[in-house]
Design brief:
By secondary structure, this protein is an alpha/beta fold. The chain has 12 helices and 14 strands. The strands form 4 sheets. The protein has a 7-stranded mixed β-sheet with strand order 1-9-8-5-4-2-3, with helices on both faces. Strand 10 and strand 11 form a beta hairpin.
Length: about 375
């Protein structure tokens, strides 16, 4: 009998489909597609949901990071310390702003940037720290905040995987000067295309970012400073408005599924990443094994789809060679061992049980001495 296929995730609208369809129809009927009432309403609603005073909708999460840095005056000749374990866009955004990304290795348990390594990486050109709240678990913001205060550095939070997460009880994105979010379709709050947002409690910063995202315009055809074209469109804003009210329920479901995985995978032949902050929102459920290739093949043979986030440290990406990145051995090892198991709100409990049972049935090959 062919086993039931368990996909890594599903991007097809589910219980939210009627609301999404209604939102799409509403925008089409309005005839207004760029920087209109849907974006304005979403910005207010997302700021409130995120615990921030202001939100600014932009084209992507990458643009969000770059725009924050630009608005802070960080650019050529400046350095931004960030994590080598993330989507490469985190560091590419720093380069988009004209600054140099400097990599500090990761904590071997949390897999987010290690504050001790950040301290070692701070130099005379350092202007900001860009922690990445990876897989839905916040970085150690208490320690990072102490460093930032001591050295007068800005904190720009990469929250692209941490919608509604909290770090020691504080909303992700509100601890530093600003937080950058992505609404790429796979995110906990996903659009049906690209999209991003910046949250901040600094009104002047929010106003400047609003100008910068729209070519530096103070009003139509009046460009006060060089900007870019990075605008969240009305269609995606309306879709996100339809989905945002469901995000708390979806987040709770992710946590339930993660707890079930932890219970069912106890004493299995893999390492489960620890939950080190109760504010974890489980964008991904990631495990580790030195036999990843064999485990992935074992699960695939049983109809279970898995992915790797991320197989190559950013510090080892050819695209970053020009910034002369430091070697980050902890991140490099993690990149060889991490594997993401299926987890999304519509995933069934018995699917988690099937995945766990398949993992328990896995027998790693002995490592030759």
């Amino acid at each position: 009998m062919t086993p039931r296929r368990i996909p890594f995730m599903s991007l097809v609208p589910g219980d939210d489909a009627p609301a999404v369809r209604s939102a799409i129809d509403r925008v089409i009927a309005s005839g207004w597609f760029v920087l209109g009432p849907e974006v304005e309403a979403f910005e207010q609603e997302f700021a409130a949901a995120s615990g921030a005073a202001h939100a600014v909708g932009v084209g992507t999460g990458t643009d969000a990071i770059a725009l924050i840095l630009h608005a802070l005056g960080i650019g050529a000749g400046d350095e931004v310390i960030t994590s080598p374990l993330s989507a490469a866009y985190s560091a590419l955004a720093v380069m988009m702003a004209g600054a140099r990304p400097v990599f500090a290795d990761i904590d071997p348990l949390r897999l987010t940037i290690d504050p001790e390594q950040v301290a070692r990486a701070i130099g005379p050109r350092t202007r900001a720290i860009l922690p990445v709240h990876l897989y839905g678990q916040p970085a150690d913001m208490t320690a990072i905040e102490r460093l930032a205060v001591r050295h007068s550095l800005a904190i720009v939070e990469d929250c692209c995987q941490s919608h509604l997460a909290t770090a020691a009880g504080r909303p992700a994105g509100t601890i530093g000067v600003a937080g950058a979010f992505s609404f790429y379709p796979t995110k906990n709050l996903g659009a049906l295309g690209d999209g991003g947002a910046i949250v901040t409690s600094d009104r002047a910063l929010a106003d400047r970012i609003k100008r910068l995202r729209n070519g530096g315009q103070s009003d139509r055809y009046h460009h006060q400073e060089p900007g870019v074209n990075s605008r969240l469109d009305e269609m995606q804003a309306a879709i996100l408005r339809a989905r945002l009210p469901r995000l708390p329920e979806w987040t709770a479901r992710r946590r339930v599924l993660a707890a079930r995985y932890r219970s069912r995978l106890a004493n299995s032949p893999i390492e489960i990443l620890p939950e080190l902050d109760a504010g974890h929102v489980y964008h991904l459920f990631v495990v580790r094994t030195a036999a990843r290739r064999d485990l992935q093949a074992h699960l695939a043979a049983r109809g279970i789809e898995t992915l790797i986030h991320y197989p190559v440290s950013i510090a080892r990406q050819p695209a970053l060679a020009s910034v002369d990145p430091a070697e980050c051995p902890v991140a490099a090892r993690a990149c060889d061992e991490i594997l993401s198991l299926p987890l999304y709100p519509a995933l069934r409990d018995d699917s988690v049980d099937e995945v766990a049972a398949a993992v328990h049935a896995f027998e790693p090959k002995p490592v030759a001495s």
